[in-house]
Write a structure and sequence with these properties.
The chain has 195 residues and is an alpha/beta fold. The chain has a single domain, classed as Vaccinia Virus protein VP39 (Rossmann fold), CATH 3.40.50. It has eight helices and seven strands. The protein is globular and about 35 Å long.
Length: 195
Amino acid sequence: MVSYEKSTRMRKKASFFIEALKDFKIVGSFFPSQPALVKKMVRLVKPSRGMVVVELGAGKGPITKELLKKMPPESSLLVFEMKKEFADYIKKSIADERMTVLCDDGRNAGKYLRKMKLGEADYVVSAIPMGNFTAEENLKTLASIKDMLKKGGAYIQFQYFLSSWREVKKTFKKSEIINFVPNNIPPAFIYRCVK
């Protein structure tokens, strides 16, 4: 007999898989980010009072949950997820007054930061599947990420392939591959860029 908890986990994974089948270009993977990848990404975020973090491509929120555990009470997290099903799931499953979930293109984050009078972001943490987009689309996305960051702010991204690395280096002069996570499904690279 399958426990309720295990049954719930299986339903979550199945719904993620189904959404990936519907729109793989946006979802980017058939599996949610694994705990090892999430922890290594979030480890790069240094908490500070009043910090502003923008998360792009949140999926069902594994990185969102870890960011909120790390962020101080007086901080703000803007979560962008283009898939309505995923954005709604995060809104229902994570209750936190520091978090605002937006079902919109993350390239519009700067507009929301200004509208909410949050200034520029300290961090942009992203799971956008850059490898699914053209070099031109990636350059536009990277330019908007750079614009939303404060000077000295960091952009943290994971990718399964480094196909967009040329565009990353072109946009951010201070860029480095920080980690490779072989036990994620699929294995992933983590990089950090500083404005």
